[in-house]
Specification:
The complex is a heterodimer of chains A (583) and B (361). Chain A has helices at residues 2-10, 23-35, 37-44, 56-76, 102-112, 117-144, 153-175, 180-194, 200-208, 217-247, 267-292, 298-301, 320-328, 343-371, 387-406, 409-415, 420-459, 483-490, 516-529, 538-554; strands spanning 48-49, 85-87, 99-101, 261-266, 334-336, 339-341, 461-468, 474-479. By secondary structure, chain A is mainly alpha-helical. In chain A, the strands form four sheets. A two-stranded antiparallel ribbon of chain A has the order 1-4. Chain A has a two-stranded antiparallel sheet with strand order 2-3. Chain A has a two-stranded antiparallel ribbon with strand order 5-6. Chain A is globular, with a radius of gyration of 31 Å. Residues 1-17 of chain A have low confidence and may be disordered. In chain B, a hairpin with a 5-residue loop joins strand 10 (328-330) and strand 11 (336-338). Classes of the chains: A mainly alpha (583), B alpha+beta (361).
Chain lengths: 583, 361
């Protein structure tokens, strides 16, 4: 390292330009003499990134954020963040002459009188949906594969905060056009704020600059939407990326891929081309969606009027799950000492979302506390090899999904011709029972898949060839899997033995005292590990192979002819052989 | 790389690591004709992208944007063409780059060793030493007076930072006492004794005989439409929006025998015509879905359902309180008017609502 640095630092001409110093080389040399770029870039230009399709999900989020910045800046050139009254005089016939806010009028102007304006508005909205969806799926990928473990816990926390900020950014964004639907959303948000104990009505009056709706909310949300939250998002995304570079990406286990190395393609050229190309793909897809797929047609909703509402009013999809909880929550309100406590609003809106976020943030820390695993991890785990973790996330997903479905209970009722009351009653139970069932099913499913892996390791893969023995019995022929595949299947840790712990009776036969917390932890450890299936030992593998060899011996007469089975397993050429061979 | 801080290799059992598989050349690596073809493919993708970009410019200047949005797929020709060409131009660049990377760029996987996140012990020691030296030289440990007064002054700085936001808005009480528009404050609306109930949108007053049994009418206080001697609206801008957000009501007529008036509300109806606040007591959506047969009113936002024949009590959903009822009577011209303002605050619940409700009566 020191050799290279001195070269770059001392030489005036040659270090940054290996051969002929062309114009590009001259620029590079000029920049390096002032910025010392060569030292910084010499490692990173060929930085290794492992390849797997699931690593692309975070990229979708990153690139859709770039699209949001670009399309958002375009929109700000025409959008007017003002609730001042104006009479619309633009191209859209049905609303001409109607009184509305300047915000709504400028949204209409953008949609109907600025060429490409509607496309950009819709691109911005689609990209926002994509941004949040991609963040969520990326988060699931990270969790299911164990990439949230040490040393990446802080990046997980940043990711969770990004998800929260993205959601808030989305809410402030779709409130800006000041159409009937977004105004209804703000009206509900006013109701949420008022439900806060003690300070609720003050919060509402401060935010709205007086009584709802006032004339301050749109300009204030605008500042939050175009400056405050994007600034935070940008800073946190930068931190997220820097940590990714610092930790180096996780990788799947496989031949030659270990905890100590990272195997993949270099940043320049392959990864840069693929990731850069993928940026254009994401950009292109959102452009197509913006041009071809209508989203949020505010001209159909009309300007906001606090005495009107449309049936089927719903927030954007990512706000759907708390809205669903709000719908299924029974109407409970306490009146204590002359004060009103609205549990029916507080619980689903003011308590549940922060609670879920806190739980998400704590997941890596809870896991390492329960498992006692303080090691660094750079190799990913298959979801099946952490059954309890996988089951926990699936159960959270089930809760999310059911709450989200409850947020569409009116649409479900209409589309499937069901009673909205029965759907609501059902959901009240389902949000509790569903996650429990999902947990149990997922855990058992994972364990079955672990057994299946062991089966493959011990007895080989199913060839699909049915053998008939001399006695007339039929059996399917199994053949051993390749060494690479067998290694990949076994490249995982054995779970700690949780049944024998250090807390057993000591030499005098006296049970040591255990704190209740340690007891809970031990119980959780048992839940996490006790039912898991461990990979076979070397002895078990040896035994199984011995058994297989014996079977092959019995079938030795068939070897080398068509009926030995190799011919039809899809791994061998069969062109030169007839089905019956020389039999 | 025998650094102690690196994670252990997982025990290579029961099978030893066979090592990285040998690199397999791609067809384009060994066949120059195929490589040439891939090169042409990539160039063609980039070329097509340019075509799309030019078409974008053409579409921008030739296609109409404006009032006819039913031209293509309900979207407008300009928007469709711009989206399709821009999308095409971008996607083709992306496809070209990725094809280039997959077919032509060297595809040798390379191995890089990881480094531990943890700093080496000597670095930790050096940092700690530097930190201690710095703190020592500052004297922050030896001079608690300086340290504590600094901490104190920074804490106090929070006060200006928070206080600065005080003027974001008036408090609810300030609005109720000082605001210069009609019906200011959470517990008041523009309704008052003698204010006519008029139809939403058009603003015409309503006679009891205008309504049939089973009808439901969206209505507003007459004040919303009122003009003064100069022909100017009494309520404009914010005041108008606030008046509507609290004053919107629904009128319904039912057979008086179907109605079970609440205690003290026996004379609030006129010929079976009842008037309720339209603002949901849950989070404040305007309620609009009426089930004519059952006299149930459903909020479209969260499906709270109110029984209009029984003081608009909640019979289903997340709302906790009945819709406030507006006492009705008929003025000398025979139009429906309010007997008074609402007897309780309309809209969603809030902390001090109960105490306000009791004082306003």
């Amino acid at each position: 390292m020191s050799i290279d640095t001195s070269k770059v630092a001392d030489s005036n001409s040659e270090a940054a330009t290996p051969s002929k110093p062309g114009p590009a080389g001259a620029v590079a040399s000029w920049a390096d003499e002032r910025l010392g770029l060569a030292t910084m870039m010499k490692k990173n230009l060929r930085k290794v990134f492992p390849d797997h399709w699931s690593f692309m999900l975070g990229e979708v989020a990153l690139w859709s954020f770039v699209v949001l910045l670009l399309s958002g800046v375009f929109l700000t050139f025409w959008y007017t963040p003002s609730m001042g009254e104006t009479v619309y005089q633009g191209s859209y016939d049905p609303l001409r002459g109607v009184e509305m806010s300047e915000a709504f009028a400028s949204s209409l102007h953008l949609s109907f009188d600025v060429r490409g304006g509607l496309m950009m508005r819709q691109m911005h909205h689609w990209a926002a949906s994509l941004f949040i969806a991609a963040m969520m799926v990326h988060m699931l990928r990270v969790y299911f594969t164990g990439a949230h473990r040490k040393p990446r816990e802080l990046n997980w926390v940043i990711g969770c905060i990004l998800l929260l900020l993205g959601t808030l950014e989305g809410f402030t964004g779709y409130s800006l056009p000041d159409d009937l639907l977004s105004g209804t959303g703000i009206r509900a948000a006013d109701g949420f704020m008022k439900a806060s104990p003690v300070i609720g009505s003050y919060m509402s009056f401060f935010l709205f600059g007086g009584e709802f709706p006032g004339e301050s909310i749109i300009p204030r949300l605008y500042t939050v939407h175009v400056l405050l939250i994007p600034g935070l998002l940008l800073a946190l995304i930068t931190a997220h990326m820097l940590l990714l570079v610092f930790h180096k990406h996780t990788q799947w286990p496989g031949p030659g891929r270990t905890e100590q190395n990272v195997v993949g393609f270099p940043m320049l050229p392959v990864y840069a081309a693929k990731a850069g190309g993928f940026f254009f793909i994401v950009f292109g897809v959102t452009a197509l969606m913006g041009g071809l797929l209508t989203i949020n047609p505010v001209w159909l909703f009309g300007p906001y009027d606090p005495s009107k509402v449309t049936a089927g009013s719903q927030p954007d999809w990512y706000m759907g799950w708390p809205d669903g909880l709000l719908r299924i929550m029974p109407g409970i309100e306490s009146h204590w000492f002359g004060h009103t406590i609205s549990w029916n609003v507080m619980l689903p809106i003011l308590i549940m979302p922060p609670l879920m976020l806190t739980l998400l943030i704590l997941l890596p820390f809870l896991e390492s506390w329960i498992t006692g695993d303080k090691r660094d991890h750079h190799l990913l785990q298959r979801p099946r090899n952490a059954p309890t973790r996988t089951a926990l996330m699936v159960s959270l997903m089930t809760f999310y999904g059911l709450s989200w479905a409850a947020g569409g209970n009116d649409l479900i009722a209409i589309i499937f011709d069901l009673s909205i009351n029965q759907i609501t009653y059902f959901m009240r139970g389902a949000v509790f029972i569903g996650p429990l069932i999902a947990f149990i099913i997922t855990k058992r499913w994972c364990i079955s898949l672990q057994r299946k892996d062991n089966d493959t390791l011990l007895h080989g893969y199913e060839t699909g060839i049915i053998m008939r023995s001399a006695e007339g019995g039929y059996s399917e022929k199994h053949l051993p899997i390749s060494e690479e595949r067998a290694y990949t299947l076994t490249a995982r840790d054995r779970d700690p033995d949780v049944t024998e712990t250090a807390t057993g009776p000591d030499t005098n036969g006296i049970e040591p005292k255990r704190s209740p917390v340690a007891g809970v932890r031990q119980k959780l450890r048992e839940i996490a590990f006790a039912d898991n299936v461990q990979k076979p030992t070397a002895a078990e593998l040896e035994e199984a192979h011995h058994h297989a060899d014996h079977e092959h011996e019995l079938q030795a007469g068939l070897d080398g002819v068509s009926a030995d089975g190799h011919q039809f397993d899809g791994h061998h050429l069969v062109e030169d052989e007839t089905l019956r061979g020389d039999h | 790389m025998s650094d102690d801080n690196l994670p252990d290799l997982p025990p290579q059992e029961p099978i030893a690591d066979p090592g990285l598989p040998e690199h397999q050349p791609r067809p384009t690596d060994v066949d120059p004709a195929l490589a040439k073809r891939a090169e042409r493919q990539v160039a063609a993708l980039f070329g097509l992208s340019s075509v799309c970009a030019i078409l974008f410019v053409v579409a921008y200047f030739t296609l109409d944007i404006g009032d006819d949005h039913s031209t293509v797929l309900g979207l407008g020709a300009s928007t469709v063409a711009l989206g399709a060409t821009l999308g095409g131009a971008l996607l083709l660049i992306g496809a070209g780059l990725i094809q280039w990377a997959r077919k032509l760029m060297a595809d040798h996987e390379i191995v890089e060793m990881r480094h531990p996140s943890r700093s080496p012990d000597e670095d930790r020691a050096a940092t700690l030493a530097a930190l201690n030296t710095g703190l020592e030289e500052s004297g922050i440990g030896r001079r608690p007076l300086v340290r504590n007064s600094l901490l104190g002054s920074i804490t106090i700085l929070l006060a200006p930072a928070v206080i600065m936001f005080r003027d974001l808005g008036p408090t609810p009480n300030q609005v109720a006492e000082d605001a210069d528009y009609l019906g200011a404050g959470l517990e008041n609306t523009v309704w008052d004794r003698g204010v006519r109930v008029v139809r939403d949108v058009v603003g015409t007053p309503i006679r009891p005989s205008d309504l049939e049994v089973g009808d439901l009418v969206n209505a507003e206080p007459e004040t919303v439409f009122a003009v003064n001697e100069e022909g100017e609206h009494v309520l404009e801008g914010v005041a108008l929006q606030i008046a509507k957000s609290k004053g919107a009501v629904i009128l319904t007529r039912m057979d008086p025998e179907d109605n079970t008036p609440g205690e003290g509300r026996e004379d609030w109806a006129v010929d079976g015509i009842l008037c309720y606040s339209k603002i949901c007591t849950h989070v404040g959506c305007p309620i609009s879905l009426n089930e004519r047969k059952t006299q149930h009113l459903l909020c479209p936002c969260h499906q709270s359902t109110f029984d209009l024949a029984n003081s608009a009590k909640v019979i289903f959903g997340p709302a906790a309180r009945a819709l406030p009822q507006l006492p009705l009577m008929v003025d000398e011209e025979g139009y429906l008017v309010a007997q008074s303002d609402f007897r309780e605050p309309v809209g969603p619940s809030y902390w001090e609502r109960d105490s306000q409700a009791s004082t306003s009566e």
